[in-house]
Structures are given as structure tokens and as C-alpha cells.
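Practice record 12: protein with pyridoxal-5'-phosphate.
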Amino acid sequence: MKNTFNEIKAQDKEYIMNTYGRFDVAFVGGKGATLYNEEGKDFIDLGSGIGTSALGANDEKWSAAVSKQAKTLAHISNLYYNPVTSALAEKLCQATGMKNVFFGNSGAEANECAVKIARKYSFDKYGADANRNKILTLRNSFHGRTVTTLAATGQDVFHNYFFPFTEGFIFEEAGEEALNVLKNDDKICGVMMEMVQGEGGVFVLDKEFVSAVAKIAEEKDIVLIVDEVQTGVGRTGTFLASQQYGINPDVVTLAKGLGGGLPIGAALCGEKTCKVLGASDHGSTFGGNTVSCAGALVVIERLLDDGVLASVSEKSEYLRGKLKETFGDKIKEIRGLGLMLGIDFDGPTSKEIAAAGIANGVAVLTAKSAVRLLPPLTITKEEMDEGVARLAKAISSLEK
Ligand SMILES: Cc1ncc(COP(=O)(O)O)c(C=O)c1O
């Protein structure tokens, strides 16, 4: 393996498809919310691998469970039972009130599964001739990168090049018009939304709107899908963000933070949808992989039994306070829930700030105009203080 940054970068540029705009840094290790580059320089991690490393780097319990599982049985196909995957499914149902789970490997796959469930629910109940197969999603949403989940994403910029896209998705702004369409279009079988639009710029959906959608969905027998790929698994201060909205989704999708850094996605079904998919209707070779599930079991244990989830709201308030105190009126707006924050700064763009962040030892994300923070849920006060101080240096460097 290459050792210096320039060698690593050159190898990457030559052999990996150029689909990502990478920052000028390579990471080789970490502990909690601190990452290390190849020279041992530390960086405060306020992005946690885009919300995946919920417990930060190298959580002791998580690393031990994952290593143990890798040494015991790293994978077994879905043709057989195993105790790890079923234990995770039970824990997820207990934490969410849902009835059963389908495991895949990513958020996009979880959403693909949700789309299939909504369509088959309607097909089974109303028949093929009813053509009840449209799915309404929101403008500014993001649901994934497969051809179907791109089609489901309510942003025109993603509907390019890869024609023909999967048919049957319609988009509305979150608001009155979306409610009207849901009420009046009898061809709709599902509605899918994020409680906080993460990639879209960290916009929190209005509670009244969400309750109104849930009410119409129930009345019209429309499958209510909540995409919690980014908001789920404690990110917003409750296990699911939708739990703060007082709704009962028919399908919830999870990925990102669930595996604590390992690939796993899940579509969870409620009472109405839990019997829609049967033998051979869906599948995934790696779905429910034992090592990923062993990691996810520790994520849930740490969140629920070790108090990590209970600390999220307090940390969120602390971080918001620290940001306001440090940046004052340089901040135009802070949005978000829990440890999912978007900050619009006056002056430099979010991209410029993120690049300057790396030069000053702090890793942040962007979402359109916002600097997006998705720190590990285990982040300490000291790490938050240091992260914000480094962000301040980064922004000052842009003002010179
Ligand atoms: C809300 C939401 N849904 C789906 C996805 C796609 O997840 P994945 O990249 O794991 O396929 C993302 C990824 O950012 C997301 O934020």
C-alpha cells in the first residue's frame, strides 16, 4: 500500500472512477470524533463518514463485536437462518414499533424495497387494472443513486443522462398542493419523504404538514414511507425522526448510521405492509450480512442501553450554542434536529468553508448552501469545542 499522500492520491486518480470531488486529505485511522491522516495529524470529524460512523471511529464494543463476528462467521447466505441477523431484526422492531424488516446494503436499496412494497401492496389489493402505482415524493428530496431512487428524488438536476428513468414518480413542494394531489389523485399508491431533507440542505419538515400527509395517507390507503436513511438511528435525538412527528409510517427505511460504519440498509414494515413481500418477491445476496449486523447490534445497544441516544439533544443544544457564540452574525441560519445541523454562513460558500476546514484540521460536510454537521453521536464536549474553534480558524483564513 502507498504511504505518502501524493502517492495515495495519484493511485486513486488513476484507478478509481472520477465520480467524487475529494478533499485533499487521506485518512488512515481514528478514535471517536478524531481522525488521523497518514502523517498522524489529527482532524476533528464533524461528518462521521456522511452520518455512518454513529459511534465514531474505533468504538471499543463495536470493534470487538465486529472482529469477533468476522472470526466466527463473516457471511452466510439468506438460504439459512443465523442468530445475528434475526436478533438485529427483533431489536429494530422493538426500537421502532415496526413489525418486520428486509435487509439490504445501502440506503438506495432500502428505498428500492420500499417502492416495491408500496406498489405491490396496491397491486395485491386493487389489482393490476387499477394502475394504482404512482409515488409522490417531495421537491428537494434525495432518495438515492440507483435509476429508480434517482427517479424518486425530487430534484431535476438528478434526472439527467440515464434515460429512461423508472416511471411513476411525481413531485410536489411540501405544502398545500402536495396535500391536494394526495387527496385527489387516485393512482397514487405511496408517498415517500424525509423528515429532515439532508442532502437538500438540511430542511426540517413542518409538523402540521407531516401529520396532514399521514392522515390523508391513512384515509386513502396510501403507503406512507419515511426515508430515515440519514435521520434514523438516533441522529435527530430520537431513534427515528418520525417519532418526533407522532406518525406511524407503513414503511421506514434506514441505512447510514445503522451499521456504525459497515454497509447495511433496512426497510421496516408496519402492520399494513408487513406481509406484502413473500418468498422470491425480493432478495439480496449480502443483505443481513452477519458482520454488518453484529456492528448494528452494538450501535443499538450503545444508543439505547449506554445512554448515547439520551445525550443527543443535549449535545445538539451545546453545539448550536457554541456555534452561535463563536460566529455570531456571521451565521445567517442554523437548521436541523439533534446532531444533524445545517448552517448558512454569510460570506464564503459552504464548499470553500469545507475545503478550508480540512486545511485547518476539521472535517465538515456540505449540503447545497449549508455547511452540514453530522458528527458521531458519541462526540465529546471537548471535541465539539475544538471542532468549532478549528472551523472558526478556517473561516477567518477565507476572510484574509
Ligand atoms: C435520505 C437519503 N436517502 C437515501 C440515501 C442513499 O443512501 P445510500 O448512499 O446508502 O444508497 C441517502 C444518502 O445520502 C439519503 O440521505
